[in-house]
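Re-run with default settings, no changes from the original entry. Doing this only to confirm the output is reproducible before filing.
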Amino acid sequence: MVTPIRRPRPRPRTRPSSRPSTRRPAFSLRQLTVCFGLIAIGILGIGLMVRTGLDSAAGHPVASLLVGLAIAVLIVGVLRARTRGRARRTGPVSGLPEEEAAGFVVAEPEPVVEDAAAEESVRVEDYAALDAEEFEAAVAALCERDGCRDVSVVGGANDLGADIVATAPDGRTVVIQCKRYADTHKVGSQDLQRFGGTCFAVHGADLAVLVTTSSFTDPAIEYAEQCGILCFDGTELTAWTTGTGPAPWD
């Protein structure tokens, strides 16, 4: 039988001692009585003023007008004072005096950082715009992204049929030949024969892969199956790039 263990609740954070105390003063009956008394005196005074103005309005219209203007100015002044008081209370840090609130900086939201792997991966629609060397570099980047070690691009005039040599995550030596062809240009059996003559004997491949942006002819596929070469067409390359399909060594 497993006895549940109740985790202690975290203690609430306390403010640093350097900040001034913001505790409210204790309730005082004396102050409350004085406050109500002042309010009553103010209301009584205003009532007397209004009554006097009304009594003298018939015989002294100018005086009554002045009294009315004075009352209006008094009301406007009170409203403006209340508005300013609210603006001060709603400063940068609500509930703190201006001197204390001035020391705080409102934190801005952190920018959203997109997945670095997604940015580094080559977009599928960009493969057609790459030249041969750029396409080889793009495939090499995919190898590094998916855990290969010692990835090197060896393609060139004297590459002897290999464009990329790498060590797969499971330790096998992977040799890749890259063919950036248009959709209408299929990889033929001659391309597979040139690659098959060197990938195992010269480069010591444990896994030989021919990656293309297009597709393969039937004779090329038959030759690849006989020699143990993996054919990776444009559809499989797209799945590998987007992470929806396996890498060649998987």
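The chain has eight helices and five strands. Strands lie at 149-153, 164-167, 173-179, 207-212, 229-232.
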